């Protein structure tokens, strides 16, 4: 039986296995609070979808191709970070862990680069937040997700450095368990973004 | 789960690992298929707007459920009850707040025209 | 770079005109400028000299070191709780002074003769509301829950002690920002709800709304983290045998309040963040032009605002439940009904927010839905009132100070609740919307409801926290003063509202308002006197602490676990984690003669070490937000980097716990136990006298 959201360790990982019950649950509660933030930004976005104020609209600004690539990158990175946490649970081999973490970081970086490219091309076409209510809603929601991804990548680096210094000790394990939960959570938010923000407007 | 005998522990752990890896692969493949459907429907412009929106909504919900199930290991049974209660309560609040916001603002908007 | 450019970069838009006496310099021949300048300068000097006096005292008494290690870096939930309550009481003093100024102004404002300028008056009602909600009520209830809830569920601390001190740091940073706005003016004039477009940059370009935004945001983040911490604590840290349905009612209300904090604070964070984006980055969420929609602000704000009033009231309901059962010497009547009512209120509170803007223009059907859902909340609340009355029925009721507050609460709260049902009717609301009727209503809920509850809790648990009781006579004076003062100050406002007087009115020409405003002023002065009584009470009690000592820890014949340990409790709360077998566990222990036993399974106790992270993040949060208010971008960047660096550095700390040996715990406990066993039992008739030594003869034993 699983005791908390995300991957559960097993008894061979005591004491991290027991500490995770409270710590990962607490982090999950924080995610649930965060999901309200995103939910309200989604609602605001939907409510403002007509507020173009004569400015450029979704068909002028969005590129389906890059959004598709971003979606794939994030989905694959969800798999690789899952593999990283499985490697931590079962293999306990730093080198293998680094490979998975490195892959995840690279995919995250690629995702962010594509997003930055999207943002830049929007600005180029006059899609800046000061142009309309709809653009304001876009620029509050999607970059907030990008900010979350950046924070998660910074966390990933911090955890990698800690593995170098401390090895895979309890704190590292607890950190990686929570980072994995955050990463999957961000992918779920992204499902909302590509469905509502991009495809909902283009479809 | 019953305790395995010590000599089987390594084998059990390996089975456990394989099982969990499969779970992630399943989640990945299901999500991938749903993503392809979602983008396909929009990219190839194969249906009217209402059908597209309904499809988008359904595939998104399914994909969220899939990631909950296979990535976050949350299922309806065998789960610490606290987590599930929390998720259901969050969904309720999210529905109230998000739905309420859209409903109220749409109502105001309609009355201004 | 020229000197001018350097100063521009260093100080942003902060200039001489931010000083409180600047108006006098600019208009030296204007009497009102002098008066308002002097009032503002007086307040600013109080802040500056008050802070200096504290620094001097700490230095002269050499208290810096003990302040640092004993309090500021402490992660003990009891210390953090006490600091929250101190913050609340200090801010309460400021909020009360502001209320007095506003009432005095309105009592003299007939035909525009009041003494405050419109801007100054606007700052007064804005800071008053902001402070009373975010920096009095919230810290007060957070402090009480922090202190009491872990003790009541038999835990050693909250789940995340360092996070707890971060919450305190962020809340204190927000309060500090409001205090600094007295010295470097102005604060917002947009009311505690800060509605755009008035608070948008195009109408209000100054620093005022920015102070409000960041103070509220800091407090909101702190409360979100608090909510997470408390709810996880209740879920995961309960002592063995402490099933959910054995928890004291205060813990239930703490749990429901925390859940509300987790879900209701994000809408506020979103609302203030989007308003900040409008103001700082030229977004168009709530502007008049380019597709902005200011109604969404009202929607977002009250998505927070309505659950917020239940965040404020539920812990008070919890305190009253403890007060009624303790001081009636009876178990709580209708425990399950009270728990279910609390849950109902918590869930319903998310479905009523639109009644705050019935008049905004949505359809009558929509208004009707929210009107009905609002009235529904009256049902579980009514259940609670009856349960409390039936708890007193046939009990051995003792009229102690907490009980006086509680009785005042029951009478007044029912009146306030009834006016709430009146307001829930949209067509009535159209008549009294934005009048003083509304102001009377919500003060009627928040003062007898929340504040009396907090003061009752403060009085009841003070002896637990400090080992001596609060003086009874001054406590009664304060409680009666609060009750009478409240009635005089706010009942006239119902009349004024029905006469059509809008809230936040700077000047009026209707002579019929005058007698009511004068009576309200008298009531406010009475409340100030009651607050003075509280201060005297504290002073007298500290002075006479040896006579009021209750080290045995159980001055009121308590029923729950927090009374089973010494007063003040040791850092680790319980020498051995208690095992719970029923509701009211301590009462059962006392009746079965199992109290004051010496356990035999002593173990080493692991406790968290001190951490400076909360202090650092509080400081960094304050500086960063101060930089944002005045456009000192270098400060914002530095603060952000320092905050990030501190969090990362903390994550590299490995040695975060310390161990207290079983021998030490046993020695401490046995010494206390021997002292307590030597004390005579106190009967309830001596409860309020100096004979009360904290070792209670259980009421039910007395009756046998």
From TrEMBL, chain A:
Cell membrane found in the keyword field: yes
Main location: membrane
DNA damage recorded as keyword: no
Membrane-topology annotation of the record: Multi-pass membrane protein
Keywords annotated in UniProt: Cell membrane, Membrane, Transmembrane, Transmembrane helix
Domain Heme-copper oxidase subunit III family profile intervals: 23-202
Subcellular location per the Swiss-Prot or TrEMBL entry: Cell membrane
Membrane-traversing stretches: 21-47, 67-86, 98-117, 137-167, 179-200
Gene3D superfamilies linked: Cytochrome c oxidase, subunit III, four-helix bundle
Similarity-based family: Belongs to the cytochrome c oxidase subunit 3 family.
Record PANTHER family: CYTOCHROME BO(3) UBIQUINOL OXIDASE SUBUNIT 3, CYTOCHROME C OXIDASE SUBUNIT III
Name of the protein in its database record: Cytochrome c oxidase subunit 3
From TrEMBL, chain C:
Primary location group: membrane
Mode of membrane association: Multi-pass membrane protein
Transmembrane annotation, as ranges: 38-59, 80-97, 131-149, 161-187, 211-235, 247-277, 297-320, 332-354, 366-383, 404-424, 436-458, 479-501, 513-540, 611-629, 635-652
Localisation: Cell membrane
Keywords linked to the UniProt accession: Cell membrane, Copper, Electron transport, Heme, Iron, Membrane, Metal-binding, Respiratory chain, Transmembrane, Transmembrane helix, Transport
Region (Disordered): 684-704
Keyword Signal: no
Protein name from the UniProt record: Cbb3-type cytochrome c oxidase subunit I
Species assigned in the record: Pseudosulfitobacter koreensis
